[in-house]
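Usage example:
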Amino acid sequence: MRRTLSYAVVTNDERNAADEHFGAACQRTLMPAIEVEHLTKTYGPSRGIQDISFSINKGEIMGFLGPNGSGKTTTMRILTCFFPPTSGTARICGHDILQDPFAVRRSVGYLPESVPLYHDMTVTGYLNFFAEIKGVPRRARASEVAEVIERCGLETHARRMIGMLSKGYRQRVGIAQALLNNPEVLILDEPTVGLDPRQIADIRGLIKNLGGDQTVILSTHILPEVSITCDRVIIIYEGRLLALDTPANLVQRIQKIPRLSLEADGPAVDIAAALQRVDGVRAVIPTHSENSPTATFTLETEPGALIVNELACCVCEGGWTLRALGPDPMTLEEIFIQLIDAQERIQP
Amino acid sequence: MNMLSILKKELRSHFSSLIAYVVIAMFLVVAGYSFYTYLVMFLTFVGSDLKLGLWQYTFHYLRFAPLTLIPLLTMRLFAEEKKMGTIELLFTAPLRDIDIILGKYTACLLVYMLMLALTLLYPALIALYFGVEVGPLFACYFGLFLLGAACIACGTFVSSLTENQIVASIVTIAVLLTMWNLDWNEGIAGQQTIAVLHQISLSEHFLNFIRGVIDTDSVMYYVSLVFFFLFLTRCSLAARTWRGLK
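Running the assembly step on the lines above writes:
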């Protein structure tokens, strides 16, 4: 009995110890794949980035969102050791980009924005060359190339000259190149730009499948793309980091003031006056041009107010024809303006 | 090892584009015609020393190959990669800049050696009828090879400065012709200046070789030119760290 008791006591202690140990192990596996600390890069008057810090966990797909020229490519080039930052540093899989650039380059697959390809090479020849310079051993090279060709759906085009391929297939060759040597981190600069909707869906599917094993940074200036593919989003504007959050949280944050758009036939001034009287409407902003026979408005409503029915009734009771009524999602520009305004209010 | 991968890829791309073939073919046309006309000249004027003089004349003429044809081979080395953006992939691959430079340089040098090797037909023909003195002929080939090696290094550097291949070739030709003619008019400067110009001009050292003299001075001159221009290329590639890609 006594023996059992003491045994039990020991087990509890052990369990606590084991729990602590397990916790530490968890922390290790959750060690961020990419840690960026106070990165700053200045070159030229307007470009560059200022004091960017973030960290990305292993297996995460991180969206990098920002208008053209906001510093996405600069950040990616620093992370791929293309050039060093002016100040600050970053670690990829524990390797410092300044101390150990070769280890970083070996653990990163990179697709630059311009999708650089040698047009006078075949798909296989091109991939073989990059497998070689990325250090895939000679014996493993053929199977490695065959594998990325299969993953990117390039089997039927493997022997074609790259110069003869369509844009969609070239993009796939670029991604296949990034996947070579199974890098722990993938950095893809606007991988879906210039593709048709079908190809975009294909590429997104491919990227989504990568998540889990590989850590992916994906830059884009298309907002829906981020919510479809990414676990978290970084918003960057004029070289500054404005937000870092999951897409859902971001939308919630942005949609503080719900908006509706409404379109009706009739005298604009009267309709606006009537709409203004509906409970829950904060503001009615006319958006139509003067010559247009239809009046269109953007309505800002109280948060949580469900007043679509009331608005419809209001238009009908006025004897006007309701043409359209629905949610008015914010555009990317508006989100940026809002985030920048918020930022400037904090730090004038 | 990595340098070899670049070298292989460069050789493939030299021969998968038309330029290398056209350059080699045109070289053989011009070289063959000059060899033929000089041969006829030496045969007509009996009494001149064909065994020695023919090679001096022919190889002096063949300087056009490094000075005007090599720029056409080197123009694409970096300019094309910059234009296509592929340089970004090379810079972010686990490669040192020096691997990239040496791979490209050596590939171009091999193409040039092939060009020279094809002219071995002329001494082979002469050997059949008149016999050939190997020593002076070797000096001629060695001189032309070294001149070419320096010109390729210069072209490599200029190509790393621009993304426009035409600009790269024109600038290279201009630089090389100026360096060739640097000391041709001895009246342009004082004696001391001219002595310096003699030392740094491409032509003076080359003339040593085609006279059949292998002077370590001249060898060192061309070898240091190669190092100098490849060093400049490395600096030019490293400039991306402070001024971006272009």
